[in-house]
Amino acid sequence: MNNILKIKDLSKTYNTKLGCIEALNNITLNIKENEIIGIIGNSGCGKSTLLSIIAGLEEKTSGTIDAKNDFKVGYMLQNDALFPWLTILENATLGLKIKHIDTKENIEYAKYLLNTYGLKDFLNKYPNSLSGGMKQRVALIRTIAIKPDILLLDEPFSKLDLITRLDISDDVYNIIKKEKKTTIIISHDLGECISLCDRVAIMSKRPGKIKKIYDIKLSNKDIPSKNRLDEKFPYYYNKLWKEIDK
Ligand SMILES: Nc1ncnc2c1ncn2[C@@H]1O[C@H](COP(=O)(O)OP(=O)(O)O)[C@@H](O)[C@H]1O
Ligand SMILES: [Mg+2]
């Protein structure tokens, strides 16, 4: 499989009034086309920093990130909320407007995504008429609508209750795979990573380094919530659990 992003020896130190904080230390990671790769690690180990640097929102201190010239990133931030005063369609097309690419064709694509992924009857409704899971789906569609080469999802399910999380992770998997999006997903939930991802990278405590990367090979990966019952699931769970800095 092709690598669509090559991260090499990436380091980041924040300079603050209180001194230097070394957030990332020599991260080397290749992202393969169409994979979902999970990044797991302790709170504060530098996961969000890594995504922000890939998205170009934060400067790196050293290292390189190689991608094609017009590489487009879709970044769903932690706690990325919908705007309550905008309709679902307006929320879903907001990214297009901000980037000045709200062409008829692109708006049609956003509508297609809403119609296809269970929001057909809600285009002109407001977020307060949606469940937590549906809101999350709209936030994802807003991110996909700009047709990014890579999706960066920062703890997308952390605010949802467990049952909603299981449902939405199935939905998210379905959308990502059908729309063929390469995805980096951050999570601190081991089960979520194993059930959803093709590979899982474990980061050390701050300063974050990549400790190990696992290929997750389960018998049928189509429905993440069912993967938790796969006979290999406990094997990966134990392996990753041992590897994580506590
Ligand atoms: N803008 C910033 N300025 C200074 N320090 C920061 C900034 N953003 C993050 N940090 C620090 O960098 C470290 C890594 O943070 P972060 O990437 O948010 O971790 P994670 O997402 O893994 O919880 C933390 O110690 C955090 O306090
Ligand atoms: Mg974070």
Distance between the termini: 33 Å
Q: Beta fraction of the residues?
A: 25-35%
Ligands in the model, by name, code or SMILES, are: adenosine-5'-diphosphate, magnesium ion
Would you list the SSEs in sequence order as H and E? EEEHEEHHHHEHEHEEHH
Mean pLDDT: 94
Helical content (DSSP H or I, runs of 4+): 25-40%
What is the CATH homologous superfamily assignment of the largest domain?
Answer: P-loop containing nucleotide triphosphate hydrolases
Per DSSP E runs of 2 or more residues, the count of β-strands stands at 9
Detail the poorly predicted runs.
none
In CATH, the topology of the largest domain is named: Rossmann fold
**Name of the CATH architecture of the largest domain:** 3-Layer(aba) Sandwich
Overall tally of structural domains: 2
CATH class of the largest domain: Alpha Beta
Strand order of the largest sheet: 5-6-7-3-8-9
For the biggest sheet, the summary is: 6 strands, mixed
- SS content category: alpha/beta
Number of helices: 9
Estimated radius of gyration: 18 Å
Apparent shape: globular
